[in-house]
Amino acid sequence: MDRIAGIINLDHEQDMLNELTYFRCGAAVPFGGRYRMIDFAVSNMTNSRIESIAVFARRKYRSLMDHLEQGKAWDLDRKRGGLFILPPDWNDPTDISKGDLQHFHNNIDFIRRTSADYILVSGSQHICNIDFQEVLKEHKETKADVTVIYKRVSEMLPEYQLAQKLDIEGNQRVEAIHNEHHNPNVYMEMFLIKKSLLHDLVEKAIAHGHSHFFRDAIKDRLPAIHIHAYEYKGAHALVNSVESYYRNSTNLLKSEEHDRLFKEEAPILTKVKNEAPSKYMQGSDVKNTLVANGCVVEGHVEDSILFRGVKVGKGAVIKNSVIMQRCDIAEGAVLENVILDKDCTISEGKTLIGAPEKPFVVAKRKTM
Q1: pLDDT at residue 8 greater than cutoff 90
Q2: 271 lies in a domain?
Q3: pLDDT band at 86 (very low <50, low <70, confident <90, very high)
Q4: Alpha helices of the chain — where are they, by DSSP H?
Q5: Which residues make Cβ contacts (< 8 Å) with residue 134, sequence separation at least 6?
Q6: What distances in angstroms separate CA 298 from CA 76, 324, 330, one per listed residue?
Q7: Are 311 and 244 in a shared domain?
Q8: Contact residues for 352 (Cβ-Cβ < 8 A; gap 6+)
Q9: Strand (E) positions, 179-327?
């Protein structure tokens, strides 16, 4: 059986979530009540029987390393393969690589030593639940050089404006990759390539002074290389702004959207934290809300997401909000259309109200 190794390339992902990425990279941002953004990429790979995964990280990766640890939550703390977090290490004085090609060049040993035949490269901003073995099957059937994964969207949401799009022929061969606003074929920043071809393309791209592997070594070589488009048809969310983060988070309150993303047969895994079940005190009122473990709720919570260890005081009102780990909402406080980062404290009687299209965001550890 052909094996796949995974690379989660965070190098070219911009930290566009404002206050939520002051102290962390985008891949480490909490999402969905108990997860981090990167959990979806790692879980998709391990559910697809990928046992060797490298993470290319350049900046603000301390929180990411703390979360991933040795990969135990995904059964990646193993003797063969496993999880490799590879921050910058530019100690080669002869190195002429630039951009994310530095990561491929300086970590080429990971690619050479893996027993895999294929490399699956992914980012962290596209939230989905995908089986990469199906991608490999189609890749081999079409005899493609590279298979890129895309989602055909029915509505052109603002987050798709900056995403790359695909022009696709009838046989699913990619004709062009561009940023045309109205094209519905959204490239999901995931592609599959044979290990030997990736190695050759990296060396050629560096030799020609390029800086971005996908753009310079793959996209700009069309139509010389055969790029096949694999259509992903499952649950999908692109998170590249505060507004898209808020919208896609609150979409999980719809049971059909939640169940499409979180499948029993392909679970999304995360770092385990042992906490007591949540407590709903006398007089509390909770409606249509995702509540993680360890919360204590005395007030009114509606259409919201509470992460682990949140405390909601008596008489407090929370509506249409995302409240991250260990936030403390005092008695009588009112929050509506708000995102609170971890460890925030909202004082007694304080009122914070944002707009559905522009939520009010409070940075980590703030007291209001």
Answers
A1: yes
A2: no
A3: confident
A4: 37-47, 62-68, 101-106, 108-113, 132-142, 195-207, 242-251, 255-261
A5: 230
A6: 39, 17, 10
A7: no
A8: 333, 334, 335, 336, 338, 346, 360, 362, 368
A9: 185-194, 227-231, 236-238, 279-280, 285-287, 290-291, 296-297, 300-302, 305-306, 311-312, 317-319, 322-323
For residues 357 and 2, give the distance between their C-alpha atoms in angstroms, rounded to a whole number.
46
- Residue 43 is part of which domain span? 4-261
Whichever domain contains 312, its CATH number is: 2.160.10.10
- The share of the chain scoring above pLDDT 90, in percent, equals 82
* 292 and 225 in a common domain: no
C-alpha pair distances (Å), 107 with each of 81, 269, 304, 346: 15, 26, 42, 45
Domain identity same for 248 and 283:
no
Together in a domain, 32 and 134:
yes
Establish if 273 belongs to a structural domain: no
pTM for the structure as a whole: 0.95
Q: Tell me which of 261, 288, 314 is where a domain ends.
A: 261
What residues contact residue 271 under an 8 Å CB cut-off, 6+ apart?
36, 67, 68, 69, 73
- pLDDT at residue 91, rounded to an integer: 67
pLDDT tens for 116-144 read 999 999 999 999 999 999 999 999 999 99
Pair 211, 100 in one domain: yes
Convert the pLDDT of each residue in 182-194 to its tens digit.
Answer: 999 999 999 999 9
Distance from chain centroid for Cα 39: 7
* Strand partners for 194: 118
Residues in contact with 62: Cβ distance below 8 Å, sequence separation at least 6, in sequence order: 24
CA 266 to chain centre: 16
In this structure, the answer to whether residues 252 and 295 fall within a common structural domain is no
Last residue of a domain, one of 203, 234, 261: 261
Percent with pLDDT over 70 in the chain:
98
Residue 133 in domain = yes
Query: In Å, what is the CA distance from 347 to each residue of 114, 291, 299, 356, 366?
Result: 53, 21, 14, 23, 11
Domain count, the chain: 2
